[in-house]
């Protein structure tokens, strides 16, 4: 009997340990007003439909991760999500750990299909800390704000939107991945600082914008032909630093501004567009070239005598080509008898207008003579 009891207890303990979940982050608010705290969150809404051979599906999984505890001390209006967020003596601070979302959609009907996805992640190493700050927004991880106002800090964001389709046996796809590298942003005694990626430091500065190395690449493929246009800004390592500066913009890394006003700094910029064609694309383009040859020969212009016109000469089919005359020369119609003593375009007699002109001249001279005699 005792052996059976021990066996049952051992089984219950084993089942309990085997099904135990990872402990959630602890939330602690001390001396704070209006604090909102939550541990890691994950949702995966999905929807699908099928009717008359057509299918549609969509899903929007979203997750807020993070490890560690959320702590708000002597703060007002602190919002913390995920884990590893700390707010001390701050007002209106928003802190969110690593975020990931992967919305996708697909549809198919009559042998054709299409799909699209936009995976987005905002990562970062470490926790978010706001101390003596007002209006600090921190997303990802590894962000620190001390005695600052209006600070926006984000970990390394990554996005890889992509679309694909298969229509009548032809596959088409396109993607445009975008990312900002780096980890760790720091703002101290600053106003209006925006930091993205990582490796950014701003101290006693006003309106500073800093970003880590940026990579973007657009890729498209159809019929065995693929084109790509990757672009990079920075990437050589180093950090962005702004001290005692006003209106500083730094992108890429390895940039330093001290006691400066209106400074714009960027790392090296590189672009390597390319086009690659596979065997499928070569075979597909060959028939198109041969099929266009008869059309080109059929459209060769010919003159009225049946002789082909010179290359580059434009002709109007079914209409006579006009004769070009020098500017100011009288154009004589070729289709009818030539007439003399007529005004061009009107057909009125020229003698009538000559007599009217002489009459006006005589009247003018007579009037002038009478005027002199009267004076």
Uncertain spans, ≥5 residues at pLDDT below 50? 10-23, 280-321
Main structural class? alpha/beta
The overall average pLDDT, rounded, is 78
Number of helices: 3
Looking at how many chains there are and whether they match, the oligomeric state comes to single chain
Helical residue percent?
10-25%
Note the overall shape. extended
Describe, in short, the structure shown.
By secondary structure, the chain is of the alpha/beta class.
Description:
The chain is α/β, with parallel strands linked by helices. Helices cover 17% and strands 43% of the residues. It is built from three helices and 34 strands. The strands form three sheets. It has a 16-stranded antiparallel beta sheet that branches. The chain has a nine-stranded parallel beta sheet with strand order 1-7-9-15-17-23-25-29-31, with no helix packed on it. β27 (214-222) and β28 (225-233) form a beta hairpin. Residues 10-23 and 280-321 have low confidence and may be disordered.
Q: Any key phrases for this structure?
A:
alpha/beta, 43% strand
Give the helices and strands, then pairings.
Elements lengths: L1 H17 L8 E4 L5 E3 L2 E3 L2 E6 L2 E6 L2 E3 L5 E4 L5 E3 L3 E4 L5 E3 L2 E3 L2 E6 L2 E6 L2 E3 L5 E4 L2 E6 L3 E4 L2 E6 L2 E3 L2 E6 L2 E6 L2 E3 L4 E4 L2 E6 L3 E4 L2 E6 L2 E9 L2 E9 L6 E4 L2 E6 L3 E4 L2 E6 L2 E3 L2 E4 L1 H20 L51 H25 L1
Parallel strand pairs: 1-7, 2-8, 7-9, 8-10, 9-15, 10-16, 15-17, 16-18, 17-23, 18-24, 23-25, 24-26, 25-29, 26-30, 29-31, 30-32
Antiparallel strand pairs: 3-6, 4-5, 5-12, 6-11, 11-14, 12-13, 13-20, 14-19, 19-22, 20-21, 21-27, 22-27, 27-28, 28-33, 28-34
